[in-house]
Amino acid sequence: MPQGPAEERALWPRADFLEGVGGDLIGTLGGAINGVSIDSRTVEPGEAFFAIAGDRFDGHDFVPEALRRGAAVAVVSTDRALDYPPEVKPLLMVDDVLDGLRRLGAHARERSTARIVAVTGSVGKTSTKEALRFALGADGPVHASVASFNNHWGVPLTLSRLPKAARYGVFEIGMNHGGEITPLTRLVRPHVAIVTTVAAVHLEHFDGVEGIARAKAEIFAGLEPGGTAVINRDNEWHGLLAETARAHGAEVVTFGEHEEAGARLLKCMLHETCSTVTASILGDEITYKIGAPGRHLVDNSLAVLAAAKLVGADLVRAGLALQRLEQPKGRGKRHLLKTGTGSAVLIDESYNANPTSVRAAVALLGQTSTGMLGRRIAVLGDMLELGPEAPDLHAGLVDALVEAKVDKAYLCGPLMKSLWQALPRPMRGAYAETSAGLEATLLDDVRTGDAVMIKGSFGSRMGPLVEALIKRNGTVDDTL
Q1: In terms of Cα–Cα distance, which of 146, 135, 145, 136 is closest to 115?
Q2: Which of 453, 213, 475 is nearest to 351 (CA)?
Q3: Which of 78-82, 91-95, 333-337, 472-476 has the lowest mean pLDDT?
């Protein structure tokens, strides 16, 4: 059937979609596919709904709801297709729904002429992905992962949404076990692969940090011929990463303060809400502003601009675009809380935590100004998946708190008890076994002029503390 102009502009013309996914169609696919979804609650009219079976929910249970919301088709497993009454259609039957999504993602990559950048690392993946989205978007249409869609379903979902007209694509790739990155990077086939850093994260699943470095280095296995690995020269594992990249036939570009770095930091000024940077990016000197604070963002901006130059984007435009960078919810987003006589700063770092990211967040708290009689308050929950070294890694954070001149630490979780015991007594605010147990004390203690930073692993449930503070006080402005 010939395609009309509207179908040609769609994300997936009917024939291309069916060819990409494969399988057998029940009913009629009435039009082009305008999007791809795995969530029946947010599926939009004209999108394809993939009924993926997850750890907690099976998408097959929500197929009728997705179609009622206007989904153009539901992709289901063959062995579940007969579960539905005849009016529930169209259905595209496949042996395995996730494999069908992977095939569609591979088809999107095959048809695309975009220059692709993939990002992994122990910390900084999402903020680096967002910085790349701004930097490359200043030069042409860019497609990037939303949120942290970096796992076995998030990467193919993001790839399946890659528009044919995109000039650039940015993909975040994560892992917590060895072997997880290899199939994802081979699906994405990046032209440039960035490893932000290697640190003590997910130690529960590895013998040591070297194992983490080798797992992160898997990203180079998917590089396109002639591709480039961008590696942190200041990280102790840069040699292993570079060796692995070259074994895969990649060129290697390094970034950092080291004098040998190809993307080298020359100077920077760290401010409370932004940073200014001068750097040499593969031979070109550039001065730019980053619209969000933190030394970690400065370091990773070097990788961002190196990648931008490597994929052919305009370096000056890319640098200028970084001034629009903002920190999202749970990853450094700032709120100005109303208090009885003024305001207090709340820094929401609640999304996740490991020793490296907690140190970066505490350093950011140390840069934050307080009002008269105000205090710097760190609210920390357990860092999970650290294995037998977890108690020592928690206790070891005390030096970061002292260096940042934190006045009070409010801690929760059994692992944070090790840090509580190591704290100087004047720094002890309150301790509880759970974040819920800390809530009442924290809400009563925050006062005018304070700067409060909240961080912990997702399983520590620190997000509700952020929401409770906002609900109790209200905000003067959503962000600072």
Answers
A1: 136
A2: 453
A3: 472-476
What number of CA atoms fall less than 13 Å from residue 30's CA on the CB side? 9
| Listed residues 64, 97, 130: the one ending a domain | 97
Cα–Cα distance, 216 to 194 (Å, whole number): 10
Q: Are 308 and 320 in contact (CB under 8 A)?
A: no
Half-sphere exposure of 354 (CA within 13 A, CB side): 18
First to last CA, the chain: 53
Q: What percent of the chain has pLDDT over 90?
A: 86
CA distance 132 to 193: 12
How far is it, in rounded angstroms, from Cα 177 to Cα 156?
A: 18
Query: How is residue 269 written in tokens?
Result: 């000024």
* Confidence class for position 480, pLDDT limits 50, 70, 90: very low
479, pLDDT greater than 70: no
Q: Which of 324, 342, 357 is the last residue of a domain?
A: 324
Q: What is the pLDDT of residues 229-286, one digit of tens each?
A: 999 999 999 999 999 999 999 999 999 999 999 999 999 999 988 999 999 999 999 9
Residue 370's identity, in one-letter code, is T
Is the Cβ–Cβ distance between 347 and 361 less than 8 Å?
yes
Instruction: Count CA atoms closer than 13 A to 227's CA, side-chain side.
Output: 26
Task: With respect to residue 42, please indicate whether it lies within any of the assigned structural domains.
Answer: yes
341 in a structural domain: yes
61: helix, strand or coil: helix
Strand order of the β-sheet with 91-94 is 24-26, 91-94, 73-77, 47-50, 35-37
Whether 58 contacts 35, CB under 8 Å? no
> Which one has a higher pLDDT value, 108 or 351?
108
Query: 92: domain CATH number?
Result: 3.40.1390.10
Number of domains the chain contains:
3
> Predicted confidence band at 476 (pLDDT cuts at 50, 70, 90)?
confident
What are the φ/ψ torsions at residue 36 (nearest 5 degrees)? -130, 130
Instruction: Look at the pTM and tell me if it is higher than 0.70.
Output: yes
